[in-house]
Amino acid sequence: MTRWLSTASKIRNRRVVVTGMGVVSPLGVGLKNSWKSLIDGKSGIKKLDREEYEKLPCRIGGLVPRGNGPTELNIDSHFSKGQLRTMSMATVYALVASEEALNDASWKPVEEKDKEETGVAVGVGMIDLVDVCDTNDALKKGYSKVSPYFVPRILPNMAAGQISIKYGFRGPNHAVSTACATGAHAIGDAFRFVRGGDASLMVCGGAEACISPLAIAAFCRLRALSTSRNESPQEASRPFDNDRDGFVMGEGSAILVLEELEHALERNARIYAEVLGYGLSGDGAHLTAPREDGSGAFLAMRRAMNDACIELGQVSYVNAHATSTPLGDAIEVKAIQSLFCEHSENLMLSSTKGAHGHLLGAAGNLEAVFTVMAIKEGLVPPTINLNHPNCESKINFVRNFARKWEGTSRRIALKNAFGFGGTNASLCIAQYIH
């Protein structure tokens, strides 16, 4: 065992498993719909055709499909107009995904004891800038025009708060806002709450709904977004590809139910996978760019594996953060190779952002759901649009088509998520073995 792994001496008595999941994404509404679209190699990225986008360098995005179809979101069927006035669209997405996840987990507690043992950890990466602009315009017309719900709509913790209020959950009520690492940090924190005995069950994940002309313009000014494929949006997000030129902004939510194993077994809950470890790190280097040597990502992954008490050779899949930016994707590959060394040849690597874009604060959690599904189904999702990998690597990129996950006694994966400000998270997730 590697030297740094041998220092892991803390005995874990409480195992944490995934017993429910819900998804609202550009690939469709619902876990099964989104997973099928992903495995089939479909893209949820569309052209932003409103007039306000016409003069912007980027005119594409990963929007949640709206409508009455089986894979679309009909908001009016979930909320009244009065309810919608009190909450942001990110909170709407989180509530819809939470409902599916809790139904999937068969967990709608009635007893106060059960509610007290159920917590929520859901974050939002950034508020909807349109809310702020519209309210500022309203104030110019008069004080009374400002909505009394403006503050609750923009607070990052209100998705978690609304979920707790709706179901009466009285365990930890926690919100994370760490840019693009938000969703992964929320899952990792929830994992620790359950493992540490603060809750028996946690509803966790992230949500994002900030696609607007102002947000697109702002990220364009950072030179972060893809601008070369406005007329072929489904080809724009291309992690690891030599022709990548930036990420595509997406929106949505994904929620997981994490549960203490014995609690899950006692109620005969379905178990998707087990969360083994969680690692965090900071780059301490730059506002938006990771360290060129990949040491921030390296530390997060290493700490997740150390926390999980597993060896390098046991991991066979990494679900990458890779957003389709020229700098970030290459640095993440460098970090993975530095960590796994000779074991890199046995790794499968993919980024599902090619299919759904970058959901910012909801990226790590949506991709964690897809990682859990890969483990459960034994099928690794592809990186679509990956035609010409530009990274000199012995890692096996899963390109354009899903791949069967074979040849291992236990399927174990890492899920990476990195955010502006140099905040990094990595989750170690594994096949459940009784």
Q: What can be said about the biggest beta sheet?
A: 12 strands, mixed
Runs with pLDDT <50, length 5+? Answer: 1-11
Decide which structural class fits the backbone: alpha/beta
Mean pLDDT: 95
Give the total of beta strands. 16
Give the C-alpha Rg. Answer: 20 Å
Terminus-to-terminus distance: 24 Å
The helix content is 25-40%
Strand content: 15-25%
Continuous helix count = 15
Query: What is the overall silhouette?
Result: globular
Show the helix and strand layout.
Blueprint: H1 3-6, E1 16-25, E2 28-29, H2 31-39, E3 46-47, E4 60-61, H3 81-85, H4 89-105, H5 112-116, E5 118-124, H6 129-141, H7 150-154, H8 158-167, E6 173-174, H9 182-195, E7 201-208, H10 213-221, E8 252-260, H11 261-266, E9 273-282, H12 295-308, E10 317-319, H13 326-340, E11 348-350, H14 353-356, H15 363-377, E12 379-380, E13 396-397, E14 403-404, E15 412-419, E16 423-430
Helix pairs in contact: 4-8, 9-15, 12-13
Explain briefly what this protein structure is:
This protein is an alpha/beta fold.
What do you see in this structure?
The chain has 434 residues and is of the alpha/beta class. It has 15 helices and 16 strands. It has helices at 3-6, 31-39, 81-85, 89-105, 112-116, 129-141, 150-154, 158-167, 182-195, 213-221, 261-266, 295-308, 326-340, 353-356, 363-377, and strands at 16-25, 28-29, 46-47, 60-61, 118-124, 173-174, 201-208, 252-260, 273-282, 317-319, 348-350, 379-380, 396-397, 403-404, 412-419, 423-430. The strands form three sheets. Strands 1, 2, 5, 6, 7, 8, 9, 10, 11, 13, 15 and 16 form a twelve-stranded mixed sheet that branches. Helix 4 (89-105) packs across helix 8, helix 9 packs across helix 15 (363-377) and helix 12 (295-308) packs across helix 13. The longest helix has 17 residues, at 89-105. Residues 1-11 have low confidence and may be disordered.
